[in-house]
Amino acid sequence: MEQMKRENPDVVSSMVYGQTYERRNITLLKIGLSSTGRKKAIWMDCGIHAREWIAPAFCQYFVREILRTYKTDTKVNEMMKNLDFYITPVLNVDGYIYSWHNESTRLWRKSRSPGTGGCTCYGTDLNRNFYANWGMVGVSTDCCSQTYCGTKALSESEAWAVTDMLGKMREDILAFLTIHSYGQLILVPYGHPNISAPNYDELMEVGLGAATAIKAVHGMDYTVGTSPDVLYANSGSSRDFARLIGIPLSFTFELRDKGKHGFELPEDQIQPTCEEAYAGAHHIITYAHDKVFYSYAVTVTATLWTTLLAAWVSSAILL
Ligand SMILES: [Zn+2]
């Protein structure tokens, strides 16, 4: 992150927006061209689950790609003018570092906060800890479980940090992308089987477009749907929270593979996984951008024509 800032000081800055249980900084990169107007935003976080190592790799790849291409690719350039990208390469920093500790910790998923009330296990599932139907389905109240949802919503400082940032930025965020593995899925809100997003059809259409873009890169199939439809019901996820507070486009990416290697994706699949996921993310971000900035352009143009027409009508007798 420091290197990206150093090499691209005009467009990259960073912000510490929280601390982990073990007092490490939670840092995001803000990437965009400076503008006098108020910019819209794209949110991306990776590594909320520690063992999903391909996710932080993807965030790094995404950052590199937009920085590599924005001067020459007209679309990326346009989006860098209108949008700021807020990218957290590793959200669950404690868990991620712990998963690198030794072979026995490689598959650690949760945060690293200790259990309470006599429970001797560690860690809360951060993606069950958000204030979004918290504790209702697909969670455990056993602190030893992989899906332990915590003592209450936002008991974890990492979930709180994201909640705080999203709350401050929610009117500006056009798309929220949270990156996981594995399963080759694009998940749309909501994780609760009885609740449907008001723009479900739009979410599915955009998600299916992303899956098509992904397939075009290396031929991999990604399935699109809500968690209960294509995976399992869950509540308290950051994706659901983002949609609940009004961010229109909210997606979970579950990157490669479909279970053969699972979380221990071989090294030679890192690059192709990132390449195809970039195409999927690019599709969603382009849609989010164009929806706001082109409908605005259309509105302005229509207003202009109406004005001209009115002027022409009022002056018609002179013609
Ligand atoms: Zn995950």
How does this model look, in words?
The protein has nine helices and eight strands. It has 319 residues and is an alpha/beta fold. The protein has a single domain, classed as Zn peptidases (Aminopeptidase). An eight-stranded mixed beta sheet has the order 1-2-4-3-5-8-6-7, with helices on both faces. The radius of gyration is 21 Å and the shape is globular.
Strand order of the largest sheet: 1-2-4-3-5-8-6-7
Task: Report the sheet-strand fraction.
Answer: 15-25%
Named CATH topology: Aminopeptidase
Mean pLDDT reading? 95
Examine the secondary-structure arrangement and name the CATH architecture.
Answer: 3-Layer(aba) Sandwich
In CATH, what is the homologous superfamily? Zn peptidases
Q: Shape, please?
A: globular
How far do the termini sit from each other? 64 Å
Tally of structural domains: 1
Rg is 21 Å
**Main β-sheet, in a few words?**
8 strands, mixed
Hetero groups bound? zinc ion
**Number of separate strands:** 8
Family: Belongs to the peptidase M14 family.
GO cellular component, one term: extracellular space
InterPro entries: CARBOXYPEPT_ZN_1 (IPR057246), Peptidase_M14 (IPR000834)
Organism: Salvelinus namaycush (Lake trout)
